[in-house]
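#dry-run=false #mode=assembly
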Amino acid sequence: METEHKKFDLIIIGSGPGGYASAILSAQKGLSVALIEKRDLGGTCLNRGCIPTKTLLHEASLWSLFNQSGMIRNREEVHSYFKKTMEKKDLAIRQVVSGLQNLLAREQITLFRGEASFHNPTLVIVKRDGEVIDRLEGTQILIASGAVPKEIETSKRDGQWIIGSDDLLRLEEIPSSLAIIGGGRRGVEFATFFTHFGVPVTLIERENRILPKMDREISVRYKGILMKNRVKVFTETEVLSTEVLEKNRSILLTLNQKGKKETVKVEKVLVVAERKGDVEGLNLTHAEVALKGDFISVDPFMKTSMPNIYAVGDVVGRGFYAHKAFYEGRVAIDNIVGKESQVNYRVIPICLYGHPEASSVGMTEEEALNQYGEVQVGKFPFMACGRAIAEGNQEGMVKIISEKKYGEVLGLHILGPMATELVHLGVMAMKHEIGVEDLKELIFAHPTFSEAFFEAGLDTYGEALHMMKG
Amino acid sequence: METEHKKFDLIIIGSGPGGYASAILSAQKGLSVALIEKRDLGGTCLNRGCIPTKTLLHEASLWSLFNQSGMIRNREEVHSYFKKTMEKKDLAIRQVVSGLQNLLAREQITLFRGEASFHNPTLVIVKRDGEVIDRLEGTQILIASGAVPKEIETSKRDGQWIIGSDDLLRLEEIPSSLAIIGGGRRGVEFATFFTHFGVPVTLIERENRILPKMDREISVRYKGILMKNRVKVFTETEVLSTEVLEKNRSILLTLNQKGKKETVKVEKVLVVAERKGDVEGLNLTHAEVALKGDFISVDPFMKTSMPNIYAVGDVVGRGFYAHKAFYEGRVAIDNIVGKESQVNYRVIPICLYGHPEASSVGMTEEEALNQYGEVQVGKFPFMACGRAIAEGNQEGMVKIISEKKYGEVLGLHILGPMATELVHLGVMAMKHEIGVEDLKELIFAHPTFSEAFFEAGLDTYGEALHMMKG
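#status=ok
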């Protein structure tokens, strides 16, 4: 048993995007870095989030195309295809994790596999199976321990009937029917995934619309798209109770939809609900690191209540995006090496990888109207976009919201092909103050999906070239 | 027979992208507009170029995915799939052409179907089947008559053995083998298309590399990709002669590759060679409009040698891109309505819709080195990009060339997934002087292909996050 103190410039707890990005950045800047991981290297994103779900969604959409092509004669093939999809997901995980291992090795980051807990604000103990295996002393410490699902009293995960996304990624068979609790981005992505495989899906959301954080127009249109794909959507709905019917191999949900009782019987329930910072076992009180609600409290420099301790990523809340964690890591490391830097969340893209895709950056139309009184809206439908027509992928639109006086872009909202990529045109315009009027100066290649962004810009002034109007 | 003079503010000859965009723009600005089309409404782009080829390439890539998935048991299905692909192409054409008809009607643009020829610099005669059907008088005239293939003496198109892209779009069967003369973007796109359907393709290029106008690195890598897909690539090669072997239902090409004689026997030869301005029948001398080589000569205001006559699009040469024609149309119309405007071709994206895609904007590495002496190069491979891994689409890279002092982006070259969309990030950066250093400020969504652009920017300073190095 190793118990001497090992000294590092920086100790990082958690190897997900916030942790590994911070580790690489700080090593690039010459710090000696310890990285502690209690579970899977790469955290949620690489092992149970972004990467595997993108593989699943991509493969499922291909299945759907195969199916539509009329070339699949034997519907039973779906089962072997599903198995292959799961295998491809495992392959993708292996590749990104092994890539990360190489990166860490190259940057000479010391990896410790075990649970971290604070002894005091500069001393972190690493335990495995309850035993202390290392004591690390760090001049500075960064917590990037991620988040875990919050339990819902009326639908507690049991791993068989009521599952979380972790269990889902281990499924070996396509469920015959599924209810999803949580109609945010992840809920909608999983609904999309199973719909491609023909699974009847029920989507349950507490708020009065699915995708409550996205622009209302996209949220409304997305509901229509899901319903067209035979997803049952319940909004303003709470789960009152769940009852396993062992004999029927099914589970009965009792719902309260705006005061009306409804029941739904399905094979499995997937809970994609709220999350809380994963601080269990960290012994934060020994480090004098304060929480705010379910998350670690940080200032705009990503510093916690203890001056030498920073926190970034899901454990600080404010949205669960890997790129938010990367960004916060960059800010934290800047401050750690003495280059003052503050976070600014104004221009963070949000992506939905369903089919169609959707994305958003900046203010929704409602938020912009509330703040500015009046705004300009430029819109362009993909059904008028040459590439969308050529590729038979015409659902959706691009919507640019801008301020009236100088044409400053306030928000960009996209539903449709490539939405998760095109959103970066808005990121660039917003960050570098390219007004909607300035977009006219650009030359967009024809035919591309990107032209829909350009045409939405032109439409702000009634100058779109290919606009279909009533 | 209609022979009275009809008067318009602007007469436009040709309804392809240059013509129809100019018509819509000038009508939006209040001009009365006549649009003359002798063949298909929408010109080459809508009927025989951009749109139909994108449908073909998209459907072919899906076939290739189906095929790779191992779910297609009967190889004979390829023939019915090919037929469906051709039908989808016709559907796409019908949709874009009918969209264009609506746009023209809405803007009250008067369409004349027939051949235009100048009587004098303000009078254009429209003929159909040799008979005069209209006489149009225009204060200003814009020529957007497009381009047509130049005949090659040693491989004259006969529509059966030696075909052009027009004939190709009417093919009813997959040829058993094909030679393509011309290894530029279009030649490579057609090679890609037929390769997906398992056709052995021979690609013949006169220059010492295929894609001679793209960055050398992309050109070299693309050759490797084609060869991996069993395309035979001949560079520095001229066609000496062609001989139809009726009995064998094949055609024999004799080639001269750097002085060495080679022969190739194929079912069909596709000629995708040089083009010249389509000015036949226009009677340009009556309008005192001068040519320069094969194209109409224009100044930076898009004005021809006759002050009231403008020309835009393929008929002026300088590259054959619909978006170049849109842009030139915008400049011409600005000048026509009295708002002085000059073309600047510095930031025009070029797209290759093969698989993988490729794109380019600004200077190639060689051009930049020649002009600046030394430059910075930031590069990022898609095999280190999370989304590319998740979706199993990892071939290629992003390369950003920038000037050393201020980090001004000089060129962007992409090979790989979404290249034709991602290129617009470079268009925006170059046009709005966002230096490669400024890219660091942006937050790119994870996981996206766009991140490869961001990481290439970071790599300029050795700061890429996910860079795999040797």
